[in-house]
Structure formats: structure tokens, C-alpha cells
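Whiteboard transcription, Tuesday session. T.W. wrote the C-alpha cells on the left side:
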């Protein structure tokens, strides 16, 4: 109960701090967060979380990576093809994860990495696509992302992607929910400040899917974004929604150059 009250008091204060209109000051191409100040969420995590992420034995996300490796090699579906049958070693996919979300050539849909893996399962392996947030999908997504560990987030120059990035930027500035806050209020204007006992991060996407102590499991960027919607008492878009993909395109552009962290841990 006390925690609930504290929550509202803090958020109300935050809302007051941010009453300034955003208006025309920021165009979609303008960086509210200068590239020189871009920092991973890891920098704002406590020492214990940082230590857990760095510890190869204790990092709980390793369990999903191991599961992903098993799935990768498992012959599946009527054609009895594994991911490995077509793609070889996971390490061969180095450089692939930072390209997502991108437009999938055959369907022209905006795919994130999860969408691509679900597509391969249903079309190439002819099995039902693993559900969003299933251990199987998270494990394979983490495995493919691990191949790109340390590579920088990039902003694809594909002109077809630009409208999606602009849509994501607009969503990022849009006030929502009962608290009438936008992403930018917390993650552009208040990062580095205390929020409860923790520091507010810049809301960077470079560690996903990651292990969150609060979830006690791995979770996707979709899930994290949905938590932020719920936090401001807004209706979260469903898993797999285009709006979440568009925000992710914008987040990659916004966090340009941040190294992919895999396996990552957050509180
Ligand atoms: C009321 C403040 C608030 C708003 C508004 C908000 N968030 Fe967050 N966000 C948080 C908090 C708190 C966390 C968890 C701790 C942290 O990373 O700061 C978080 C975490 C995140 C993370 C994960 C960072 C990491 O390193 O794991 C991302 C990405 C993110 N937010 C994006 C968004 C987006 C996109 C929006 C708008 C749809 C949004 N947030 C709106 C408070 C907010
Ligand atoms: C029968 C062959 C086949 C199998 C099996 C297969 N894929 Fe694919 N995969 C492809 C093809 C072809 C593409 C090119 C894009 C497309 O058409 O979807 C692709 C694209 C990808 C990409 C994006 C590569 C890039 O360069 O953008 C990833 C990641 C991926 N697959 C992961 C997987 C995973 C994980 C599995 C196992 C669950 C899997 N694939 C199973 C054929 C396959």
C-alpha cells in the first residue's frame, strides 16, 4: 500500500516536472539525446546487477542460451530441418541481429528478430510458430543475438524503413495514459535521476531479450515496452504489434553505436 502511494506521488512529481510542451521544438530527425551521451541501461543498474551480468557462470540468461543452442540443432517438422541445416553455426549470423527490425523482402512486413524466427519456423520448418514470450522463441532470439554481441546498434538507411522510424519517433513523443506522460519525459529528460531507489535509464534496447530479476526469466523488448505503457496507466499494444516494431526502429536510431549486450541482466 505504501509503495503504491509512493509510486503515485513520484509519478505526479515527474508529471509536473514535464509539463513543458514538447510541441514543435523537436522534429523527428532531431536528436533529443545527443549521441555523445548515449549510455546502456547497464550503466544505471546497481553494482549487484552489473556483477551478475558479467559473471558467465551465474548469469541466469545462460540457461536460455543453452536451450537456444539445443533448439537450433534439433531437426523439426515434416521436413526434419533444423535451424542449423539451413544456417550452419549460429556464429555465422554475426551482424544479423542489429539489422532488425527490418522490412522482410518476401512479405514487405516490418519484422523484428522474433518475427523472422517465427516465420522460419512456420514456413521453413512447417511447424506452428512459437508464441511470443515462449521460452523457445526467447532462447532462439537470444542465441541469434549473441552472435552479434559487442557489435554496435545501427540505423538502417533503407528508405522503406524511414516512415517506420518517423512513426516510432512520433509514438515516442506522444503523451499517453492516465499519467499523460510520453517516453521522452522519462528517458530523454529524466535519465540519471532517482526513480524509487533506482536510477532512471535512457531506455535503450541494446540488451534484449534480457533476464529481468523482477520477471525471474528472460523477456523481450516488446514485454519491456508494454511494462512502460502499464507504468503510465496506458493500454499497452499487444505483443507483435506494429507500433512496438516502429518504436524499436526509432530506439536503434536513438541509441546508435551502443554495443549489443548478450546475455544482459536488469532489475
Ligand atoms: C514514468 C516513466 C517512464 C515512461 C513514461 C516510460 N518508461 Fe521506459 N522505463 C521506465 C523505468 C522505471 C524503466 C526501468 C528502469 C530503467 O531502465 O530506467 C524503464 C525501462 C525501459 C527500457 C529498458 C532499458 C534497459 O536497459 O533495459 C526501455 C527500452 C524503455 N523503458 C523504453 C520506453 C519507451 C519506448 C517508452 C514509451 C512507450 C517508455 N519507456 C516510457 C520508466 C518509464
Ligand atoms: C529450410 C531452410 C531454413 C530453415 C530450416 C530455417 N531458416 Fe531461417 N532463413 C531461411 C531463409 C531462406 C531466410 C531468408 C529470409 C526469409 O526468406 O525469411 C532465413 C532468414 C533467417 C534469419 C535472418 C537472416 C538475415 O540475414 O537477415 C534468421 C535470424 C533466421 N532465418 C533464423 C532461423 C532460425 C532461428 C531457424 C530455426 C528455428 C531457422 N531460421 C530455420 C531459411 C531457413
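and on the right, the sequence the group agreed on:
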Amino acid at each position: 500500500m505504501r509503495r503504491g502511494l509512493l509510486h503515485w506521488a513520484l509519478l505526479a512529481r515527474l508529471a509536473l516536472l514535464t509539463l513543458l510542451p514538447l510541441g514543435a521544438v523537436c522534429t523527428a530527425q532531431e536528436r533529443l539525446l545527443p549521441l555523445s551521451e548515449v549510455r546502456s541501461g547497464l550503466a544505471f543498474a546497481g553494482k549487484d546487477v552489473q556483477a551478475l551480468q558479467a559473471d558467465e557462470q551465474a548469469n541466469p540468461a545462460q540457461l536460455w542460451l543453452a536451450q537456444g543452442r539445443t533448439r537450433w540443432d534439433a531437426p523439426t517438422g515434416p521436413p526434419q530441418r533444423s535451424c542449423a541445416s539451413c544456417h550452419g553455426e549460429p556464429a555465422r549470423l554475426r551482424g544479423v541481429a542489429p539489422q532488425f527490425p527490418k522490412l522482410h523482402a518476401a512479405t514487405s512486413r516490418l519484422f523484428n528478430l522474433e518475427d523472422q524466427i517465427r516465420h522460419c519456423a512456420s514456413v521453413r520448418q512447417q511447424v506452428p510458430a512459437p508464441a511470443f514470450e515462449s521460452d523457445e522463441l526467447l532462447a532462439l532470439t537470444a542465441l541469434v543475438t549473441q552472435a552479434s554481441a559487442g557489435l554496435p546498434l545501427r540505423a538502417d538507411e533503407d528508405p522503406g524503413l524511414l516512415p517506420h522510424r518517423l512513426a516510432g519517433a512520433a509514438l515516442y513523443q506522444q503523451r499517453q495514459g492516465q499519467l499523460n506522460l510520453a517516453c521522452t519525459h522519462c528517458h530523454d529528460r529524466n535519465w540519471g535521476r532517482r526513480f524509487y531507489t533506482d536510477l532512471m535509464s535512457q531506455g535503450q534496447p541494446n540488451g534484449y531479450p534480457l533476464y529481468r530479476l523482477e520477471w525471474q526469466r528472460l523477456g523481450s523488448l516488446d514485454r519491456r515496452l508494454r511494462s512502460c505503457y502499464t507504468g503510465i496507466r496506458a493500454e499497452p499494444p499487444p505483443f507483435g504489434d506494429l507500433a512496438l516494431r516502429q518504436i524499436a526502429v526509432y530506439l536503434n536510431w536513438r541509441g546508435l553505436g551502443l554495443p549489443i549486450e548478450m546475455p544482459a541482466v536488469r532489475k
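Someone added at the bottom: Residues 81, 83, 85-87, 93, 96, 99, 106, 116-117, 119-121, 124-125, 140, 144 surround heme C (ligand 2) (CB under 6 Å).
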